[in-house]
Amino acid sequence: MAMLYTEKDLFPTIFVKRLFQNIIMKRSPLFLLVLILAPLLVSWVTDPLLRGRYESESVRQPDDYSGPVVSTVVRRLPAGENPRRAVLYIHGYNDYFFQDTMGKIFNDSGYGFYAVDLRKYGRSLLEGQRRYEVRNLREYFPDIDSAIVCMKRDGVEEIALMGHSTGGLISALYMEEGDPSPEIKALILNSPFLDWNFTGFMRHVAIPLVAALGKWFPDISIPQGDNSVYGESLLKKYHGEWEYDTTLKLLHPAQITAGWIRAIDQAQKQLMKNGRRIRVPILLMHSDHSLTPVAWTPAADSADVVLNTDSIQARGRRLGFRVTDATVRNGIHDLVLSTPGVRRAVYACIFRFLSRQPAFRRAPSAAAPCG
């Protein structure tokens, strides 16, 4: 069952809300105050959506143009430990954190695991909110900052930031802005949304036009069509092996807005315009091929059916000077949801990359390459 929170479900934070208004968004010197006060505003509870050792916190953020806003931090720690090394995971579009095996795998390899359900997604979707609504991807920076506050409170000193698809774009933009948390020592990108998967009229006319309109008319609705190939390749009741809340990760994604398209387009262009400004080592992971089927076929279970892998590779190499480009044979769009053999190769690739970074060398690692 979906959890759509109402304001009465959240602790009263009127004073804090006013105090924090524009502080986090502008990342002013008063952000230090946020770091000091944040632990007083949140508390871990057993996560209602995942089993096992998962806990979550709801973090009240300053109101935006739509009203009250929250983000949610989810964590899983190794039994009896608070590791100083940890991964922070940022989900993609039409998504939330549900990959329970991911946290276990990182824990078993000596890492703490944290994830964020961004505002207006998943656990953070409030009653009456428009799904996915955003006008500038920097709106998500406070959600990431709040998670890092929680991690630091737990004693984490070295962080690997990991983003999937739109979460990969957000993570890259966060690192490119020039003021990321110094605890972030590496960036892991899982099929990042660095370019539109369109050609011809859509790419050169429709997207620029809608993005321009989004500045003045951000609430114009844009339909997403009825293609369900990717969802069918994931869900156990169709052709996949996963179970998740389909009221939070929809089989047919909800309409987006012109403001959302503008936000994505501007972020993609900024990353390419500035070029190579991300200073930490980057692991760029993507499938070895893409498909664009109109209906599910078995081939959809071994290809990226959402983004163009050639574009991911070309643009991802331009994000920094230390980019490890990892092509995953037969990977799907969310590589960690691929078939078991491919998943093993993906995690082996991640741990191999981390083991080569000085901050993470003491954590156990797998030696097999991607493939």
Structure notes:
The structure is a single chain. This protein has 371 residues and is of the alpha/beta class. 32% of the residues lie in helices and 17% in strands. It has helices at residues 14-20, 23-26, 31-41, 100-108, 141-153, 166-176, 200-216, 229-234, 258-274, 309-316, 340-355, and strands at 45-46, 55-64, 67-76, 85-90, 112-117, 158-164, 184-190, 221-222, 256-257, 282-287, 323-328. The chain is globular. Residues 1-22 and 363-369 have low confidence and may be disordered.
Average pLDDT number? 89
Give the neighbour order of strands across the main sheet: 1-2-3-5-4-6-7-10-11
The geometry reads as globular
Described by its quaternary structure, the protein is single chain
Query: What is the terminal separation in angstroms?
Result: 37 Å
Provide the helix percentage: 25-40%
Count of helix runs: 11
SS-derived structural category? alpha/beta
User: Would you count the extended β strands for me?
Assistant: 11
The parts where pLDDT drops under 50 for at least 5 residues are 1-22, 363-369
The radius of gyration is 19 Å
Measured by DSSP, the beta-strand proportion falls in 15-25%
Order of helices and strands: HHHEEEEHEHEHEHEHEHEHEH
Largest sheet: 9 strands, mixed
